[in-house]
Amino acid sequence: MHRRISNNFTYVSSCVKYMIFMLNFLFWLLGGLLIGVGFYAFVDKWQATGWLKVDNFYDVILNISLVMIIAGGVVFVVSFAGCLGRCVRAPAS
């Protein structure tokens, strides 16, 4: 006798799916927070000194506000892609 599997069958528990979504959402918020704090520090330093030296690669790496903006942007994009990957459902074949 042949068993029929419904279209909604999945090997992954729905609890695990929502846990993954919540963790990606949490990291998405953390990435946005890093971007915001880094941007605030960048503007504050720029207003305090009146100039900002970004001539070469080492000036960017040694400026912690720019590192926070870049790292926050990477975390933001990757975690947003994870949220989309969890929410978007593959078409049934």
TrEMBL record:
<feature type="transmembrane region" description="Helical">
    <location>
        <begin position="62"/>
        <end position="84"/>
    </location>
</feature>
<keyword id="KW-1133">Transmembrane helix</keyword>
<keyword id="KW-0812">Transmembrane</keyword>
<keyword id="KW-0472">Membrane</keyword>
<protein>
    <recommendedName>
        <fullName>Tetraspanin</fullName>
    </recommendedName>
</protein>
<dbReference type="InterPro" id="IPR018499">
    <property type="entry name" value="Tetraspanin/Peripherin"/>
</dbReference>
<dbReference type="Pfam" id="PF00335">
    <property type="entry name" value="Tetraspanin"/>
</dbReference>
<feature type="transmembrane region" description="Helical">
    <location>
        <begin position="21"/>
        <end position="42"/>
    </location>
</feature>
<dbReference type="GO" id="GO:0016020">
    <property type="term" value="C:membrane"/>
</dbReference>
